[in-house]
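Justification of computing resources. Each target in the renewal requires a structure prediction run like the one illustrated here; the chain below, 256 residues long, is used simply to show the kind of job we budget for.
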Amino acid sequence: MKVIILCGGKGTRLREETEYKPKPMVEIGGRPVMWHIMRMYAYYGFKDFILPLGYKGELIKQYFYDYKMRNSDFTVDLKSGNVVAHGGADTDRTVTLADTGEETLKGARIKRVAKYIDTERFMVTYGDGVSDIDIGKLAAFHKASGTIGTFTGVRMPSRFGTVKTDDKGNILSWQEKPVLDEYINCGFFVFKREFLDYLSEDPSCDLEKEPLTRLAEEKQLSMYPHNGFWQCMDTLRDHQNLNAMWDRGERPWVRG
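Resulting structure tokens:
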């Protein structure tokens, strides 16, 4: 099953890092967050990736063009110029990199790489979130659901504490940043190929708006609930927190 990692956004809320690089290239523990996401999928046997590129996409292209040498020892024959790489991890994956426009929204990015999707189903996720989700179980859930699309839902803690009071203002309960009852979409989608018919190459086609709304209205969208770890890297604080976790050895998203 092909895996699309959305890599085209500008990451404006992480401007401290994304002024000079695309958000998927922002690092956790010295590796781009995109590398961590790919490693998660590869652990479960999904190793064929498509990256729709936009903002500063040339830096992602260069990263993968040089990937073998970045991650290997190598020998250079100075007379002939021949280079021989020795070993190197993570080289059993294929990565298709496609320019999809700097201002293009997510739905259109997926549609524009449709020619590279040659499987009955395909996966999609955002290029900034890591999780300990079992991708194999997600795929099985999607197939059993019978729906065209499946997204992964997580419960998020509130940013603020909450209180309940009676009509006189007496405190009945106090909770510091409780976990909310509602689920939010954290990505990690699985779609049947027919979902491509819900998308347009028009740059204004956004994944979460008309396409997914239409699937939900047609009862063709299911949710895989995930109660484990998930964290996006949307702000500088998120970036700092994920790197602090890495430095402490707390790496629940790492597999293998």
